[in-house]
Amino acid sequence: MKTNFHEQDSKIITPTYAKANVDFTHGKGALLFDSKGKQYLDFASGISVNALGHSHPAIKKAIREQSEKFSHISNLFPNSPQIKLAQKMLSLTKFGKEKGKAFFCNSGTEANEAAIKFARKYFHNNRIEIIAFENGFHGRTYGALAATGQEKLKEGFGPMPAGFKHVEWNNVEELKKAVGKNTAAIMLEPVVAEGGILMPSKKIIETINQLKKQSGCLIIADEIQIGFGRCGAISCSELFGINADITTWAKSLGGGLPLGLVLMSAKIAECLKPGDHGTTFGGNPIACAAGLAVLEIISKPKILSNVKERSLQLKNGLEALAKKHPCLGKVRGCGLLLGIECKKPVADVIAACREQGLLILRAGTDVLRFLPPLIVTKAQVNEALKKLDRSIFTIL
């Protein structure tokens, strides 16, 4: 009798995810295959994790080679893969020129927790308030959740940690009023991803930079979903001209393995000493080896050019479908984080796409989100658009 993994999952795994009844067995590039042999175009990428798709040979080689040396030694000793990945990341961002430093952890929410602690430590706890934005998403642990601007995610979990304030996205006047002498940092996603794929206005970026200069507060840029090549550059905050003091990274950084990272300016790193923060598994040698393999590839002009070309192709294709189907609206986002407004129930469209062999996600309440791997081809983007077209017809 064939095993029903969905049924088993529902019996023994905590029900914190609404899981689709699909049993994936393997993947290759932008494709996934299930136990019935059905092929899917993966435009979800494990929620922006699989930047190079599935089963990439460079990642497999890096994992295998490091696993044959050691898999863990703790952060009480220097870690060569960690050092190499930090050097590469610093060299590709402004922090390399500023003699900044890196802190490794295991995930995006941990990176944001660390960033919040580091910002407060910089001010010796004299300035503690973090100004964040409505609709923003920074993680599920308490500090990162307190910074998250979505009240529905906090319901039922008791009081959040104090010291967080939220303002409307792109509301310049509200932000100016919120920043004061107790503000330690303004924290933002350069593109609000989970909250609806919302782009920053030029004015809000200018205002954030001005407020940093005027008040002396820090800027924390959450690059976890949009950075690391997905925007068409390594750093989205730098691409947009956000003068960040701290940037946080995860998702595609580890090549599919758990890995988070905080990059910070030298002035912040100088305030930290042994014991101020820590993690048992953060910067795991195998995860860092995989991350370095990914970074070596996506930092090449060829990959970043492909992101820009496929982004334009996908955006134009989505806009054409919006003219064809009245239930589709405006296209949002940049690079290979794109979304389209949808008047139909988003869950129904996602399910219909899955039936057609296309995996996509939701953003906010009414946006279809597309996160293909950065190596996606022109033919695969065209195929995805055809599958979306057919999916819309099935639910009309």
Number of domains: 2
Count of discrete alpha- or pi-helical segments spanning 4 or more residues? 15
Q: Please name the CATH topology of the largest domain.
A: Aspartate Aminotransferase, domain 2
What is the multimeric organization of the chains shown?
A: single chain
Strand content is 15-25%
Largest sheet: 7 strands, mixed
Radius of gyration: 21 Å
- Total number of β-strand segments? 15
Q: Output mean pLDDT.
A: 97
CATH homologous superfamily descriptor of the largest domain? Type I PLP-dependent aspartate aminotransferase-like (Major domain)
N-to-C SSE series? Answer: HEEEHHHHEHEHEHEHEHEEHHHEEHEEEH
| CATH 2nd-level architecture of the largest domain | 3-Layer(aba) Sandwich
**Could you give the distance between the termini?**
37 Å
Overall outline: globular
**Residues in helices, as a percent range:** 25-40%
| Strand adjacency order, main sheet | 4-10-9-8-7-5-6
- Give the structural class: alpha/beta
Low-pLDDT runs: none
